[in-house]
Amino acid sequence: MQIRESAEMYLETILVLSKKGPVRSIDIAREMGFSRPSVSVTIHNLAAEHYVKIEEDGTITLEDKGREIAERIYERHLVLSALLVRIGVPEDIASEDACKIEHDISVTTFDCIKKVIEDNNLTSDILGK
Q: At what angle do helices 25-32 and 36-48 cross, to 10 degrees?
């Protein structure tokens, strides 16, 4: 299974939800606005490729390679959202736009954005660190 934007979105959603507690298909469906059957098919496909694990009690956890992708996408989301807000974009629009950008931006471009933020001591301004 080739990881595409939709799979990245699932993995990122699982990561974010897991910060609040155990994750089940119904939680993912609610968060993403998808039907339970659609989520179930995708989760089983991700499990077959060892991106996620479905526990006996139905909870879903990220496997190492799924976690790596989820954390990369989530970092992009946080950095891009914060940067857009910093330059004056309303928070809700910044979050939506970051979701669109985070999947398509190249590693090179994202690394350059992070470097400019770090080199100009904007980390605390942009990321609250």
A: 120
pLDDT at 129: 57
Nearest Cα to Cα of residue 83 among 54, 117, 45, 36: 117
Angstrom distance (rounded) from CA 85 to CA 63: 32
CB 97 within 8 A of CB 103: no
- Give residue 10's identity as a one-letter amino acid code: Y
| pLDDT tens readout for residues 40-66 | 999 999 999 999 999 999 999 999 999
Residue 124 backbone zone (phi > 0: left; psi -120 to 50: alpha; other: beta): alpha
Whether 65 and 50 have beta carbons less than 8 Å apart is answered as yes
Average pLDDT, the chain: 91
Residue 71 — φ and ψ, nearest 5°? -65, -35
Q: In the numeric block, which tokens belong to residue 95? A: 């979050």
Taking a C-beta distance cutoff of 8 angstroms, is the pair 42, 14 a contact?
no
Q: Read off the amino acid at residue 72.
A: R
pLDDT band with cut points at 50, 70 and 90 for residue 17: very high
